[in-house]
Amino acid sequence: MAYSLDPRTKRLGIMGGTFDPIHNGHLVAASEVAHRFNLDQVLFVPTGQPWQKEQHNVTDAEHRYLMTVIATAADARFEVSRVDIERPGPTFTVDTLKDLRLQFGAELELFFITGADALSKILTWRDHEAVVEMAHLIGVTRPGHNLQNPGLPSEAITLMEIPALAISSTDVRARVAKSEPIRYIVPDGVSFYIKKHRLYLDADKNPDPQSAGIL
Ligand code: NAP
């Protein structure tokens, strides 16, 4: 699906994540960062094939992309990019930023937003020096998390605690598998999408997805 950036956009947030699934904490975080950094737009970029990730089988990229589109549809500041899911191979942020620069031009000021946990490993990321040159980095995290600069110059990175990030995608998946409600934790459209496509069900515990009770 094509998306358009408002031509007046000068300061662009890039919200990178697996979004498996996207939840209200992600939306609040993007909104808070947009406010604090006076961003014109925030582009959500679901990962393609996440590297360094063997904890769980990541849901098909099309499902994650469509849930992100549904979740962001009503906010004029938010758009979703397919740039990472259409690039073959593992997702590296340096490629994300290069592709978006090619697409939107070099004059845009970029702010790469993601979970502070993910950002804490940035020194192991491919070509992380180029990542730091291309974008200001913003690590968002849940309350109580110890916020630490992973070793970058202080002007390159901002760490922000976002109370709404008490929600996590892991919790949402576990709730669905246990037939617990996810209403008010994810947007209603995402909840309906999860139910329709029978995502995150533990087949043993929920033989009948219609009775999963996720709404
Ligand atoms: P992850 O390991 O799945 O997530 C780590 C933590 O950060 C989780 O608590 C997660 O919570 C949170 N998180 C992730 N994205 C978030 C976001 N946008 N806003 C708020 N919290 C977020 O991280 P990941 O999704 O694989 O990677 C995050 C981003 O870093 C992606 O854009 C990825 O491409 C990039 N990355 C790049 C490299 C590289 O270039 N070598 C390596 C690793 C990651 P939730 O599960 O609730 O989201």
List the helices and strands and how they pair.
Layout: E1 11-17, H1 24-36, E2 41-46, H2 61-72, E3 78-80, H3 83-86, H4 93-104, E4 109-115, H5 116-119, H6 128-134, E5 135-141, E6 157-161, H7 169-177, H8 188-196
Parallel strand pairs: 1-2, 1-4, 2-3, 4-5, 5-6
Helix pairs in contact: 2-8, 4-6
Features:
about 220 residues, alpha/beta, six-stranded parallel β-sheet, 6 strands, about 35% helix, globular, disordered C terminus, binds NADP nicotinamide-adenine-dinucleotide phosphate
Any overview of this molecule?
The chain has 215 residues and is α/β, with parallel strands linked by helices. Helix content is 33%, strand content 16%. It is built from eight helices and six strands; from the N terminus they run βαβαβααβααββαα. It has a six-stranded parallel beta sheet with strand order 3-2-1-4-5-6, with helices on both faces. α2 packs antiparallel against α8 and α4 packs parallel to α6. The protein is globular, with a radius of gyration of 17 Å. The two termini are 28 Å apart. The C terminus is likely disordered.
Binned strand content: 15-25%
β-strand number: 6
SS summary, helix count: 8
Low-confidence stretches: 204-215
Bound molecules: NADP nicotinamide-adenine-dinucleotide phosphate
| Helix content percent band | 25-40%
Distance between the termini: 28 Å
Largest sheet: 6 strands, parallel
Report the mean per-residue pLDDT as an integer. 90
Give me the secondary-structure category: alpha/beta
Rg computed from alpha carbons, rounded to a whole number of angstroms: 17 Å
> Please, what is the oligomeric state?
single chain
Record the strand order, biggest sheet. Answer: 3-2-1-4-5-6
Task: State the shape.
Answer: globular
Order of helices and strands: EHEHEHHEHHEEHH
